[in-house]
Amino acid sequence: MRWLFLSFALITTSACGKGDKPPPPTTGSKNAKPESGPSNPGTGGEAAGNPDELAKAMFRETCAICHGVGGKGDGQMAANLNPKPRDYTDPAWQASVTDEQIKTIIMEGGQAAGKSATMPAMKSQLQGKPEVLDGLVRLIRGFGPKK
Ligand code: HEC
Prior knowledge:
mainly alpha; binds heme C; about 45% helix; single chain
């Protein structure tokens, strides 16, 4: 036991001999974001994830803060919003909108559809990804009453 301990101590002390070589400075481009252009043609195939998975991920990351993970309009930010996001599980709301209206609001934002401008336009994120937009519509429809 003692030997083990000793050799450990030896190894560790010699491994970090101080003085001669200071570690490289750690200030740097940790926060630098790689440029990710909107040009993702979406032809990457299945490896990139299927549209429903991509839509789910986007909803979780981008929409849930307002709309809530379950689509009930109870995201963290919702309390401060006026008007508040709709409860997608409400059958009356589900019946009141068409898929086209949902798409327009997602792409163009609330204002374009005569609704609150706090609903941001998602055009830039969804440019060239109609399959993800369709996935979002399916997701939102999925929050509604099961048929
Ligand atoms: C900053 C908060 C916020 C974010 C982020 C947000 N929304 Fe919204 N959204 C709203 C608000 C507020 C409304 C309600 C607007 C109104 O009723 O005037 C709304 C309305 C909508 C509607 C129309 C519902 C209706 O009343 O007919 C859809 C569809 C929608 N959002 C989808 C999305 C999707 C999909 C995302 C993510 C890609 C998203 N929203 C991100 C705040 C947000």
